[in-house]
Structure formats: structure tokens, C-alpha cells
Amino acid sequence: MNLSKMSCRAMASVVSMGMVLGLTACTRDYTVAYVYATASKKGAAGVVNEYAVDYQTGALVQVTGSPVAAGNNPVSIVAAPNGLFLYVLNHDDSTVQEYSVGSAGMLTSKNTYKTTGSFPTAAAIDQGGKFLYVTYTYQTGYSAATPGPGGVSIFPINSDNSLGTAINVNVGNNPVAVTTSNFNSFVYVVDQEVSPNATVLGFAENTSTGALTPTPGTVITTVAGKTVATGYSAGTTPSAIAEDPTARFVYVTDQATNQMYGKVVQSNGSLVSMVNGPFATGLYPVAVTIDPRGKFLYTVNFNASTVSAFALDPATGSPSGSVGSGSTPVKTNPTCVTIEPALGIYLYVPNSADGSISGEKLDPHNGGLQDIQNTPFPASGTPTCAVAVPNGEHATQVVQP
Predict the structure, then answer these.
(1) What is the pLDDT of residue 323?
(2) For the residues 11-28, what does the mean pLDDT come to?
(3) What per-residue confidence (pLDDT) applies to 18?
(4) Residues of 231-259 as b/e, b for ≥16 C-beta within 10 angstroms?
(5) Is the dihedral of CA 297, 196, 134, 246 positive or negative?
(6) What are the Cα distances from residue 244, in Å, to 22, 35, 71, 251, 343?
């Protein structure tokens, strides 16, 4: 028998029959995905923690060489659709840092790019993998000392996944989150204005240039030399946004009122509120995500140190409390959430005050959460955000509209 041609699972079966074989070369077959978590460090540059995800248990194992260096105060991380490149926002440097993902999950820093404004807050990549949208806090000429509106840096993504020269779109005060559509060319930005002007801004994407044009119901104007933006209502202090994989529904958390607002996407990209919303979350929701199948939604509640789970009605998009997982405890002050896209059943939450990553296994039947064995997993620095990418040997979940 030619052992070099056996699959790792076949070799595992041979082992179970009593043969003793070395399986070192098969390690990657048991790694279903990789998780990368940004973390800040007091008085020093930040890092990116690197983990391999065990396909049987969801346990995180640190990748050799973890962590890798990042810029000052990395706050967000996104992955290219091919899973081979990552982009990290270094808030205090006002930069985007590009990394390549190696064959064993190890990251290599490639290039660093300046945003068109100061202090980036969030990022999203369009479904075609052609443009990176980065929200930032202050337009040129404004700062914490002289506050003013923010904007969006639009970076073209080249064929080698490097970034081209960014163009700029001005938006209102304090843009904090952004999401893109899977099947429609729409981009939505959360503008955390002072109450009562909190809003979600909708844009149609030019798929050739990346340029953004306001959708009906979104207006960007200039008043007394400052950009003023109005859009769709989003509570008092909107904090995070996610769109379902079918691009029919948008969800926005409100950290001030402990609620989530559901929106129905219209054919022109405008948003209409769900009739039975808003929906209660835990205390101070700061992050939201939807599982790859589009069946379940999860909010991360910073003050409660919990994750709330919701089942999504496939026809209306309305969320309802998921069976057995209304409020799953994690560690102290969680900040972000990601679900690995290969099996789509392992969920990870960075805990900022605990210096750890919590791991949960979601039940694909009802969305309930159960602790992964040995959770939480240690992280270097103060974790801020996380992203998961599939191992190249494993497929990614695909949802059809």
C-alpha cells in the first residue's frame, strides 16, 4: 500500500485498526480553517494572533510564529474572498496593512497603505473582491481637537491583492461600521451621529470604479463647510451592521438601547424597517454576524459579556430568540465575532478585558451555542477583532439567493 497517496482520514482509519502511523504530514487536513485576531498593546505596536481550527472540535491551536507584528492599535481585520490575504486597520497610524496567508496559516506582512482620512474604524470588501471600503473618523482638516465629519476610503484591489490608490467619499460624523452585499452592488455605512441623527447610509457601488452613489433615502450635503449625511433610521447609537448572505436583509445593533433594528433591502438599495422590530439584545451590543447559511444571527454584548443568538425567518428576515442560546456567557467585554466559513459551525469571540478568544460550537439545527472544549484560548495583547478563513483543502459554505 502506498501510504503517501492515502488521505489523512483513511490513514486515521488504519490507525484505528491498530496500525501505528506518523500523521505529521497530514496536519493540514485536520485544520479546517484559520482564525486571526488583532490585538493592541499598551505603549507598543499591536499584533495579530494566528490560530489553526481543529475540524473535529473547533479548538484553536496557535500557529508557529504567532503573533505577528501590526501597527498601532489595530481595530479591525477583513479577509479577501479567496482567503489568501488579510487587511488590518491600524487605527492610530491611519493605515491599512496587507498580509498574505501562508500554507500553514502563517502571515507575512506585504504592504501598508494610508487611508484618505484619519483613524479608520471598519472595513468590508465587495463580493467581487475588487474594492476595499474603509470607514474613517475624520476628514482632512479635522481631528479630535477640532472634530468634524468622517468618510470612506475606497481602495481598488489589484490582481495580486495589493491595494491601489484610494478614492474618497465624504460622509457624516463618526462612521463606525460598513457592510457590502453578496448579490447586489450595495454598500451600507453606519453613521453614529449624535442622537437623534443616528443613521445608516446606503450606496450603490460602481463595480468598475468602486465609486459610491447614494441610494434613494440617503442624502450627502455640505452645511457650513461640513459634510452632513442623512439616511435610514438606526436607533440612538448604532454600533455594528451585517447583511444576510442572500442580500435581502440588513441588521443594525444599537449599543445605547440594547436593541437591534432589522431592515428589508429594496430593489433600488433603499432600506425599509421590519414591521415587528426593533429586537432586544444583551447589554451594549457592539458586533453582529450571520452564519454562512443565513439561518442564524449572533450579537456580541460588551457589557453583559454574552453572545445572543437569533433564528432568522427565511421569508421575512425577522429574528427570534434561538432555542437554547438566548444569552451565552463568554469572557469579559467581548468586542467582535467571526464564524469560520468552511464547516460554518465554529464561532469565535475576542474578549478585550480577558486577553482571550472564546470558542463556541453552533447547532446547525437551532443555532444554539455550546462551549468548545478548552475555551477560552489565550491571546497576546488586548484583543479587538477577529476574522476566519477556510483552509485551502476545505470548501466554503455557499448560500444561493
Answers:
(1) 62
(2) 34
(3) 31
(4) bbbbbebbbbbbbbbbbbbbbbbbbebbb
(5) positive
(6) 43, 21, 31, 8, 17
What cell does 290 get? 450571520
Q: How confident is the model at residue 62 (pLDDT cuts 50, 70, 90)?
A: very high
Statement: residue 19 has pLDDT above 60: no
Burial class (CB in 10 A: 0-12, 13-18, 19+), 24: exposed
CB distance 277 to 261 below 8 Å: yes
For residue 357, which of 390, 389, 327, 385 has the smallest C-alpha distance?
385
CA dihedral 171, 173, 174, 180 (to 10 degrees): -20
* Per-residue confidence (pLDDT) for residue 214, from 0 to 100: 98
Find out whether 41 and 382 touch, Cβ atoms under 8 Å: yes
Would you call 162 helix, strand, or coil by DSSP? Answer: coil
CB 12 within 8 A of CB 23: yes
Tell me the mean pLDDT in the region 54-62: 96
